[in-house]
Automatic annotation (TrEMBL):
Gene3D superfamilies: Cytochrome c-like domain. This is Cytochrome c-550 PedF. It comes from Arcobacter roscoffensis. Coiled coil: none annotated. Residues 53-135 form the Cytochrome c domain.
């Protein structure tokens, strides 16, 4: 195999792995079927894990926007925090929503993009509900 073929294969594998867990551009989520939450951001998750629609929408939204860094089914591969480890209730909700809305930047490096303006709060809370519905290992 010559150098050009090897370079082509390397580029192909890089593209496959880069997009293997979804796009790198935040994706909008259709939240039709969820109770509208209004313009004011809530402090606590209004959806419960028995809300099947919230879990379903959250699973899709997570796969499109979170899995590439936080891992499939929220099982982190070490790139980003394991979101299943967040505590349930207000403290976990508060941390999750602050990070989801504002992203994370350290020393000028973007570790997580802000999702406010791309995802509405219904989508963000649906993601949180999906994560809470997963078994902790």
């Amino acid at each position: 195999m010559n150098k050009i073929q090897k370079l082509g294969l390397a580029a192909l594998f890089s593209a496959v792995f880069a997009f293997g867990h979804g796009s790198v551009t935040p994706q909008e989520v259709d939240t039709k079927g969820l109770e509208p939450l209004g313009e004011e951001w809530l402090d606590e998750n209004p959806y419960k894990t028995d809300n099947k629609k919230a879990v379903e929408i959250g699973e899709y939204a997570y796969g499109e926007n979170c899995a590439r860094c936080h891992g499939l089914n929220a099982v982190s591969g070490g790139i980003a925090p394991d979101l299943r480890a967040l505590e349930a209730g207000f403290d976990g909700d508060e941390w999750f929503m602050e990070r989801a809305r504002n992203g994370a930047v350290r020393n000028g490096n973007v570790y997580m993009p802000p999702f406010e303006g791309v995802l509405n709060q219904e989508a963000m809370w649906a993601i949180r509900t999906y994560i809470l519905s997963l078994p902790k290992e």
